[in-house]
Design goal:
The protein is mainly alpha-helical. Helix content is 51%, strand content 3%. Pfam families: DUF1800.
Length: 522
């Protein structure tokens, strides 16, 4: 692949060398790898994109299917006409794992595995995008995560009006925004406000407090589906009768749960189909994939036209965005979130999980990936699908380009390098759940033959997609050879660079690579 020079507003005066395949992979994948970048170059971006836009047609690898069936069987149950996924989990799997927080954590662990193991990479990225738009977290609303996250995935590349409808009916969103306490006797306006401000129009619509009350009134008596789909509406607590919202009058008639759902669907379709909703989503997609550095308002208006013309279908919107010239022009203008770097390492190292989860106790439920989850939660800026605020994680890349995130990312090396030693004799020792990564095999480096210099080039390029300059190569070699600067200065630098690399030195280079800000740039 031919490399090209790009620049980043976050590294002033630095010229970066990368490829078109890697530019696209970093932006469109939760676990970009050299293999995916090569595939994009080989197929062409448009062809690769069209495949990703139809995730239902993508065949997953046998390894991934085997791992998720063994470790996360409850998370991938099909949506039934009757029971919610959460109810399926409770009735089919739950024994002693009754804590909603523990169960929600387990579902997020399954999502992490999906983010690096699944071939449906764009679906991953879009599920995370929607999780920022219609956010929740497990501290306040852990209930229903078996429905919340799969719903984000199911609707990630569909019509937004369907996704909005499905999410508003989840127990998770109802609890996160307190709609389970919203009744005709005592209004709770939280969801009524956020469904306009965050989920649809935004503040540009100029809605009033009366409109907030109107939206809340239309959603009285809804608590989210708990046991079965269509079970979250209670006519006893719904305020029936005409309601006017932003100039539109909803009949809001009848007296049954079915009548309530008809009104709610009318509301969500009305909000999702508005042009201002399309414009707000388009601008957020641009910020998510392209950043803030380019003049993109004309593109936002074009994407909004496509959104409205296609009845809120997001696929043609994403396709037009990715194939717009601004997409490639924005190389280095956005930031990867720490969990994407983590997932890239797992995918690049071809991590193989083993074992089978037990639902007998919370401890055994978390053995597989819980320590990864905790490390991301405490040191990596957070975990996916667990937003710190009602408006999700920040889209501004500057919020992620910080020394705190660099130091947290460096801790990823304990999983990718020392699976066989770091956890001691603990019952949840990661070797019980994984084969150690052999980095020389995964990266195509031959120990005791490939030079330190060449190994550093190969390793950094395949992990980041950026070609390292000579200073970075020397820094990686210095760290890998475990020599002090004084010792290196006392001998020929060429002699050190030309020495053959060992497997342990490859691990140390990976550890050093994780301190480079280049890994954050997309």
């Amino acid at each position: 692949m031919a490399s090209k020079n790009v620049s980043s507003p976050f590294l002033q005066g630095t010229t970066l060398k990368t490829t078109d395949g890697w530019i696209a992979a970093r932006k469109l994948c939760t676990a970009p790898t050299q293999q995916i970048a090569d595939e994009i170059e080989s197929k062409g971006l448009a062809n690769w994109l069209d495949t990703q836009l139809a995730p239902e047609s993508i065949q997953e690898s046998a390894q991934y299917e085997s791992e998720r069936a063994a470790l996360f069987p409850s998370v991938f149950t099909a949506r039934e006409a009757g029971r919610t996924r959460d109810r399926v989990y409770v009735e089919n799997y739950q024994k002693k794992t009754s804590s909603p927080y523990d169960i929600a954590t387990y579902v997020i662990e399954a999502a992490l595995h999906r983010m690096w193991g699944s071939r449906k990479q764009l679906q991953n990225v879009m599920a995370l995008f929607w999780a920022d738009l219609i956010a929740s977290n497990i501290d306040k609303a852990p209930d229903g995560y078996h429905d919340y996250i799969p719903t984000l995935y199911d609707g990630a590349l569909g019509r937004y009006k369907d996704l909005l409808w499905d999410l508003v009916n989840t127990q998770t969103i109802s609890m996160f925004l307190d709609n389970h306490t919203n009744t005709r006797y005592a209004l709770n306006e939280n969801l009524g406000r956020e469904i306009m401000e965050l989920y649809s129009w935004g503040t540009e619509k100029g809605y009033t407090q009366e409109d907030v009350v109107a939206a809340a009134t239309l959603m009285t008596g809804f608590r989210g589906d708990v046991t079965t789909y269509g079970s979250g509406a209670d006519p006893m607590y719904h305020a029936f009768g005409p309601v006017t919202l932003a100039g539109k009058t909803f009949t809001n008639g009848g007296s049954t749960a079915q009548d309530m759902y008809a009104t709610l669907r009318e509301l969500t379709d009305y909000l999702a189909g508005d042009r201002l909703t399309g414009l707000r989503i388009s601008r957020k997609l641009i910020q998510y994939f392209i950043g803030d550095e380019l003049n993109t308002e004309a593109l936002a208006q074009k994407l909004t036209d496509i959104y409205v013309q296609n009845d809120t279908d997001i696929r043609p919107v994403v396709r037009a965005l990715v194939l717009a010239p601004e997409f490639m022009q924005s190389a280095g203008h956005t930031a990867r979130r720490p969990w994407s770097i983590f997932c890239s390492l797992m995918a690049s190292g071809q991590l193989t999980l083993k074992g089978k989860v037990s639902f007998d106790t919370t401890t055994s439920l978390h053995n597989a990936l819980y320590k990864m989850w905790r490390m991301l939660f405490e040191s990596g800026g957070g975990v996916p699908f667990n937003s710190p605020a009602t408006d999700g994680y920040p889209l501004d890349p500057r919020a992620w380009m910080s020394s705190a995130h660099y130091s947290g990312i460096n801790k990823f090396s304990r999983f990718v390098n020392y699976i066989d030693t770091w956890d001691g004799s603990d019952p949840s020792k990661f070797t019980l759940w994984s084969q150690p990564i052999i980095w020389s095999q995964a990266l195509g480096i031959t120990p005791d033959t490939t030079s330190l210099n060449e190994a550093a080039k190969i390793l950094f390029t395949k992990l980041s997609g950026y070609e390292p300059d000579e200073a970075l190569i020397e820094a990686l070699v210095l760290y890998a050879s475990n020599r002090s600067p004084e010792a290196v200065l006392g001998q020929s630098a060429g002699a050190t660079l030309s020495q053959a690399v060992t497997e342990e030195q490859i691990k140390r280079m990976i550890e050093a690579s994780l301190t480079s800000p280049l890994l954050m740039l997309a």
